[in-house]
Design a protein that fits this description.
The chain is mainly alpha-helical. It is about 75% helix and about 0% strand. The radius of gyration is 22 Å and the shape is globular.
Length: about 500
């Protein structure tokens, strides 16, 4: 195993600079994950006003969200693979830099075309979490690795909970460009801090980058996610949507065939089809679905007019504050998740987290009228999400060779993203189908919200079943693949995992 850099005093100062950098590695990586999640959510409070300030239609404005989703889904596995081959810190810094450039473009322009392109650049930041987790595996000793990985996984929820109220406050009391200038400054600081505090991992997997595989995966994912995200607008039975789904199936089938016949594939499908890896990806897909419904439905529910009989008529700022306890809970429970994984194994932590998510939705179904019960139910779901999201990368780290951790975790994050996209479409379909007119405008009924909660809870139980089906593993000290495992010895190392 590669030894960490010696912590000797710097010449003329007597200060152990490398040791300071080591202490800052986890905070710097975690702050990058939080910033990535904040960047993804800051545009949400702007959506109602963007048609007015840009002169674009509401359908066009929605692409400021869709572009980030598509770019993130495509670039996460691609950048993960690039990190394994060319250096994880190098690719991580590039992803943060692209995110920052996108934020600067948003701050400089009100043109909807520029905003959509800039938001697509920000989608590159979706790879920050899997790359950071891979760096933590390579650089930290085993006794610190579990809690650090759990914290890194939780940054997605923490950043989302912080980003919504922060953006709402800025939009309410300042020009909306100010928000992007603020995130630009934070992004530039994150790039500099990452380059200074994070050492480049020596673990690499040599080979040629699979350009054809990257293009094929990109085309297939764009067709799939574009159909899912626009199905409600274009019509699920429309020729465009059906054509996208058929195109996705054909392209991804050809991509799968190509990956199995490539010497250095973008995604090692033989590794993916192993039960410990494949079932972890299935659980990630289902957990992403269940998690996303929480914030999506809660935001709409508490902002519904009081005339509905259940709505609270809250502002977007108050709505963000309702989700804030969930973000704080995710921060507090990440070390708890690591402790459970160390003693009982990550698959038990994942199953427990999914079960807790289902319990949270049961609370939402029982009472969705009182604000304190809404906050309690949302916080319980966030707690379960913390346990599940913290366990998923640990499962992946134990099941794949060290030289493939970034790409494998990238695929796992991709599965969460697909789950979130499907969740958004499914929840929208349920709420549209169960609406009643209020002042001439269709508004979802309370029964519709309860059905959405029931659907998300059932998916969470399916995630629990998938977690329990994963072949058993021991606590943190169990068997792992050796660092630096080469492609030629991967199968032997995997049998030991």
């Amino acid at each position: 195993m590669d030894q960490p850099a010696p912590t000797v005093p710097s010449p003329g100062t007597g200060t152990p600079a490398p040791r300071l950098r080591d202490r800052l590695t986890i905070p710097v990586l975690a702050s990058g994950g939080i910033l990535m999640a904040v960047m993804q959510t800051v545009v949400v409070p702007l959506l109602p006003d963007l048609p007015r300030v840009t002169g674009a239609s509401a359908a066009t404005v929605s692409w400021t969200v869709t572009a980030t989703l598509l770019a993130g889904a495509v670039l996460t596995p691609v950048l993960g693979r690039a990190g394994d081959m060319y250096g994880k810190r190098r690719v991580l810094t590039a992803a943060l830099a692209l995110m920052t450039v996108g934020s600067v473009l948003c701050a400089l322009s009100s043109d909807i075309g520029v905003l959509i392109a800039a938001r697509a650049l920000q989608g590159a930041a979706a790879s920050v979490v899997p790359l950071s987790i891979s760096i933590l595996r390579d650089e930290l000793p085993p006794e610190r690795r579990g809690s650090a990985v759990a914290l890194m996984s939780s940054t997605v929820g923490i950043g989302a909970a912080l980003g919504l109220p922060l953006a709402a406050l800025v939009v309410q009391y300042a020009d909306w460009h100010t928000m992007f200038w603020l995130t630009s400054a934070l992004g530039a600081l994150g790039v500099a801090a990452t380059w200074w505090a994070v050492r480049e991992s020596p673990v690499r997997e040599p080979g040629r980058f699979d350009v054809l595989g990257a293009l094929g995966l990109a085309a297939g994912l764009v067709c799939l996610l574009l159909g899912v995200s626009q199905g409600g607008t274009w019509g699920w039975g429309s020729a465009r949507v059906l054509g996208l789904f058929l195109g996705a199936a054909a392209v991804l089938a050809l991509w799968w065939w190509q990956q199995l016949r490539t010497a250095t594939p973008l995604v090692d499908l033989r590794l993916v089809t192993r039960p410990r890896v494949g079932l972890s990806h299935v659980a990630a897909l289902l957990t992403g679905f269940a998690f996303y419904a929480n914030s999506l439905v809660t935001a709409q529910l508490v902002q519904a007019p009081r005339a509905t009989g259940y709505g609270l008529g809250l502002s977007i700022v108050a709505t963000g504050l309702c989700l804030l306890p969930g973000g704080v809970t995710m921060l507090l429970f990440s070390p708890v998740s690591a402790r459970i994984s160390a003693t009982r194994g990550p698959r038990i932590t994942l199953a427990l987290g999914a079960a807790v998510i289902a319990c949270g939705y049961a609370l939402r179904i029982a009472d969705s009228r009182d604000l304190w019960m809404i906050i309690l139910g949302a916080t319980v779901v966030a707690t379960g999400t913390t346990l599940a999201y913290s366990a998923l990368p640990t499962l992946i780290l134990r099941a794949v060779p060290a030289a493939q951790t970034a790409s494998a975790n990238g695929v796992n994050v991709l599965m969460r993203t697909i789950g979130q996209a499907v969740s958004s479409a499914a929840v929208a379909a349920v709420l549209v189908h169960h609406s009643s007119p209020l002042g001439g405008v269709p508004v979802p009924t309370l029964h519709g919200y309860q059905l959405a909660f029931a659907m998300a809870g059932a998916i969470a139980l399916a995630a629990c079943a998938a977690a329990l089906a994963i072949p058993g593993d021991g606590p943190a000290g169990g068997t792992r693949c050796a660092r630096g495992t080469t492609r030629g010895t991967r199968d032997e190392a995997m049998e030991g995992a």
